[in-house]
Amino acid sequence: MPQLSHRKRIYADIHSRILRGEVSPDDRLVDTVIAAEMGVSRMPVREALMQLVSEGYLEGTSRGFTLPNLGHDRILEVFVLRRLLEPHAAASAAQARTDAELAAMRSALDTTSSAMETGDFETFHRASEVFRNAWLAAVPNLELRHSIQRYSGQVQMVRLATMRNSDARRTIVEGQREQLDAFNNRDGVAAGVLLLRFVFEGERSYLRLRATASEPEGIS
Prior knowledge:
The protein has about 220 residues and is mostly helical. It has helices at about 1-20, 30-40, 40-55, 70-95, 100-120, 120-135, 140-150, 150-160, 165-185, 190-215, and strands at about 60, 65. The longest helix has 27 residues, at about 190-215.
């Protein structure tokens, strides 16, 4: 059944691109364009995109498929989910992680640290997604891992907005260093506490940015 295999391949490719942060909120995924690029018919591409919609990774528009367009209230709701789910996920992942997953986290941290020094925002963003996906890959509860991955669009949207600030990038790198230490020591308690603090810091950065953007001109 070639169409089924095309659909799976296309789904896996787009899904991986979303998780790596390679699909931005401004990108539009058009089935006919993707079909032409991949040398397949439109149908398996559309089926793959619709599966990603049903799982919450994308939403359909009149001009193609995009990352979910989250309003302020939905962003805050996802922060609540993150506070509830991610500390437990990080704690279990720290205890279950493999040497390969730890090495992937370490490599990603090296890249974010270097990109922070050079000001390479795009590399910094993608390496941050690699770091996040490396520890998520170690979560032994598959349903928990998938639940967290489904709101990856919200995480990326907030990060893209907030990490342009150099202080925010420094905070992210410091948090990644501490998290790597917890994973290296298989310290689930520390990993969970650090992740909860990281989510709170992300929410505060988002709220500060939103407040600044809504201030009238001339008000500091």
